[in-house]
Amino acid sequence: MPPITLDKAAISSLKSYRIASNLDYAYLALKFDKDPANSTQVIDTNQFQMDWGITNTDLLRYLQNLESRKAIKISPSQLTVNWGQNESTTMTQQEVLSMKKDGLINSTTYVYYALLLTKGAGLQQIVNPTTYAANPWMIEPSTLMQELTNISGRTNDDKSPVMTLGLTSISIIWLI
What we know:
This protein is of the alpha+beta class and 176 residues long. It has 8 helices and 6 strands. It has one domain (41-176). Helix 2 crosses helix 4 and helix 5 packs antiparallel against helix 6 (107-118).
């Protein structure tokens, strides 16, 4: 039996006709763009969004899903967090660290405050996952990326997003 070959139009039609889920569509789009001779793939997220219509936040969510299924490994990369409002806190770093140690806050809340306490003035923050892996935060890059995705899906009281994520590129290693 000959192999089945899908071109970009065929992959897009699978999504249009709801034959493939959004995750399936993202997987096929990633595979379509992958160099078959290389297990590492660097994705220009802006170009990927233009070519396939998958936003940065959705792409990161799909990549994390594929990573949890052991299909890929995400290599941490720098990203931009665009805060929806000029949020601030009166909590200190020590209070947040203590609350996490005592189990009073979950991982999502911990990452939220770790970012908030290091964001500085303005609505845009550059986040390097390896920075948060060190003292005092000790947040694994994969956990940070997962929680950033969780937080970016939340909204403020006025229904505006708490944050949006800006990626310029992300590297993945294909395991299958």
